[in-house]
Amino acid sequence: MDEIDDITLERAKKGNSVAFSSLYAHYSSFVWRLCFRSSNGDKGSAEEIMQNTFVKVHRYLGSFSKNSAFSTWLYRVTYHCINEYFSKAARHNSRAVEFDEEYMGGVSSNALPGENRQLVAKILAPLGEADRFLLTAREVDGLSYEELAEIMGVKEGALRTRLTRLKSDIRKQLEQIDTGA
Predict the structure, then answer these.
(1) 62 exposure class (CB count in 10 Å sphere: 0-12, 13-18, 19+)
(2) Torsion of CA 101, 88, 51, 37, to 10 degrees
(3) N or C: which end of the chain has fewer CB within 10 A?
(4) What is the CATH number for 23?
């Protein structure tokens, strides 16, 4: 992901509303994808999480230090907002929505046939928000284990193990589907 320029970031940190609007415009689609994927495609939840994320970004932007990329810090804020949202309510247990192209970050339906889309939705639906976040952040967005460890507040080795187990479980599900079990 392209980072916003340092001048705009510094102006936003000092409270410049035009600079913050530029920051929002630059990162909003990035944050939206994270929120949408983590909410399993529930647009209402994703909108609420995204709004809360940018409220927190505005509130805590002054505390951002350049120890990491701004996008990594933003990922961490978004991740915490996602966890906070789902820890407050049991509504995530009852959500079920149709899988669509937006969930894959714009992958066209031609690239993912309807049968495969349903299969992906079936496999991802029972995953918890943290596992869905980890899987999409690593495999779709290409974040490194180091970045994910910083964002999620866990050790790299634990993330590697968790992702390996998650992928193994998904492979088993696919094998069961292939064998008709």
Answers:
(1) exposed
(2) -20
(3) C
(4) 1.20.140.160
Between CA 105 and CA 80, with CA 144 as vertex, the angle to 5 degrees is 70
Distance CA 175, CA 49 (A): 35
Instruction: Please check whether residue 1 lies inside any domain of the structure.
Output: no
Where in the sequence is the domain holding 18, given as residue range(s)? 6-179
Of the pLDDT bands very low, low, confident and very high (cuts 50, 70, 90), residue 150 is confident
Residues comprising the chain, all counted: 181
Mean of per-residue pLDDT scores for the chain = 82
Residue 23 burial by CB count (10 A; 0-12/13-18/19+): exposed, middle or buried?
buried
Distance CA 130, CA 118 (A): 21
Give the orientation angle of helix 70-88 with respect to helix 43-60, to 10 degrees: 130
In three-state secondary structure terms, 2 is coil
CB contact at 8 A, 120 and 100? no
Give the chain's domain count.
Answer: 1
- For residue range 7-44, list pLDDT tens digits in order: 999 999 999 999 999 999 999 999 999 999 888 888 99
